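Exam prep: given the inputs below (a chain plus pyridoxal-5'-phosphate), describe the expected output before reading on.
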Amino acid sequence: MDDKLMLMIPGPTPVPEAALLALAKHPIGHRTAEFSNMIGEVTENLKWLHQTENDVLTLNVSGTGAVEAGIINFLSPGDRILVGSNGKFGERWVEVGKAFGLNVEAITAEWGKPLDPAQFAEKLQADTNKEIKAVILTHSETSTGVLNDLATINSHVKAHGEALIIVDAVTSLGAYNVEVDVLGLDVVASGSQKGYMIPPGLGFVSVSPKAWEAYKTAKLPKYYLDLGKYRKATAKNSTPFTPPINLIVALHTTLGMMKKEGLESIFSRHERQKNATRAAIKALNLPLFAPDEYASPAITAVSVPGMEADKIRSAMKKRFDIALAGGQDHLSNKIFRIGHLGFVSDRDILSCIASLEVVLAELGYDKFTPGAGIAAAAKVFG
Ligand SMILES: *Cc1c(COP(=O)(O)O)cnc(C)c1O
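Solution:
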């Protein structure tokens, strides 16, 4: 049966019908008053979502482009930076830093474990010459489902005084309470196909006054991703280059939906769905890959000892048209990941867990009482 696909991967995430209809409209000119008004409203609502007075800039890139822009605009070749790395995305920012000739020190933890804030504190406190120019942190590490302790790591960065904090918030923004101004986060990057409920193609970067100071002397080369251009254009409710018009129109729609739902309610929905998913997985006697205290609100990774994760995923797709994500790199075929990010309802979680029970039983996994997963999830929702 067509059109019943349920995306439960951590991006792209499901798109609500109102946004799909917006995408289906004829593009309008991007230098018209109508579009300019839309840019103005979108920018206001992005600031609301980021809980900030800082600039929030919209770029025609995927999330990686947004993070890259957030790095190259504020640093110079040879600058010393600390990069948290406990998964695929942390590793990516180490690679980006190296690609641009930065002096990168990775602070690592095993995949599935959170980063240790004390290791950041140690490096930052020892740096009395203030050579560390930035700390880059992946807040919600999508590859493992770990939510790193942003607040504590950030407090060590603040105590250092000089370094900027640059945050990959791609799967935490719009799912978790990321208080940009309260925490004083300098650069926060995110992408449209995650919490924003629209397809891939837009990246967002918020920039603090302190980061704009660093921008003035930053020497890494940039052109298309030069955030100064975006800042100037955004101030005039415009864009420096041709934007993906229809994505902006769809974003205008979904940001309106988010405002209507309210931040508290959005965060508690993600928290509740995370709790229900984890309770169900525990009841199925499958090991959760990330510890409870550091569990991402957007994604739950599940270990499957003695089974092939990809068999479970393909059966879920074939039998129930539910798309789950696999493991990356050494976790390939070892874990599967359930996305509960963006336009996901409690009903979707119940459907997913019930389907998973059927698939597990079909594949011969018998370490659970039929219905136990659903009962555990229902208890969280009840
Ligand atoms: C999805 C994601 C990104 C961006 O990936 P793109 O494919 O470039 O959109 C970056 N960081 C995290 C944590 C992500 O989940």
